[in-house]
Amino acid sequence: MSYFIYFIRSLRNNKIYVGSTGQLVVKRLEQHNIGLNKWTKENGPFELLYYERYYCKKDVLQREIFYKSGFGRRIRDCIISSVSAIGGSAYG
């Protein structure tokens, strides 16, 4: 089984959301865009910016915590800038 960490951006207010999932990332993005909870309903729609694949659930959860930390947010922003600057695709 694969696990993913992903970054999505709100097209409404430009906020970045970091999440993890055991589903395919595009499927999880669809769920966010449907607005299954209060936050996604108020901040959607979203676009997928970036994702990473892991094979260990513990690793992906630790990485999610990292990207939500102070230093991790700086790394996250550098990744987003790099992918955007080179015209990279989040879909590989």
Overview of this structure, please?
With 92 residues, the protein is α+β, with helices and mostly antiparallel strands. The protein has a single domain, classed as GIY-YIG endonuclease, CATH 3.40.1440. Helices cover 47% and strands 25% of the residues. The chain is built from 4 helices and 3 strands; from the N terminus they run ββααβαα. Strands 2-1-3 form a 3-stranded antiparallel beta sheet, sandwiched between helices. The longest helix is centred in the last third of the chain and has 16 residues, at 70-85.
Question: Count of helices?
Answer: 4
**How many strands, which pairing sense, and closed or not: the largest β-sheet?**
3 strands, antiparallel
CATH architectural type = 3-Layer(aba) Sandwich
Radius of gyration over all CA atoms, rounded: 13 Å
The outline comes out as globular
Q: What is the CATH topology assignment?
A: GIY-YIG endonuclease
**What class would the helix/strand composition place it in?**
alpha+beta
